[in-house]
Amino acid sequence: MHSSGHTSGRLNALIAEGEKDFRTALALTARGIGLNTYEASYASEAVEMLSSVEIHALVIDAELPDFGGLQAVRMVRTFAQVPPFLLVAREVTRSLRAQAMEQEAVSLLGSPVDMVLFSEILQGVLSRRYGDRVGRRWESRTGFED
Is position 122 within any domain? Predict the structure, then answer.
């Protein structure tokens, strides 16, 4: 697990992605909108982090090396409230879209991820939930459009 330098009062995002370069790109984008970031390579690390650190937004890969992001979300729900989460997938199928919506994902983003869209969605979700604790305000889109 890796975390950025943390400043009191800032919101925390957990980026759980198996591919290091992509995880880093997502984390840098999240930091660019004023978030502290934690990073996990495995779903099990993400579950552990969600049980021990206050996380305000979760970005999780649908297919992590040990088990899937949606399975991790279901596991966390057995002991804690799941923060707003964005699901990232190499391939977006109707089935995955339905499962993501069922688990109340804020968005499902397919590869390659448009980092501007990712930033807008993350910013919008956090602005609605936490208001002034978030830096810039951007118009939000859900990412569920076909």
Answer: yes
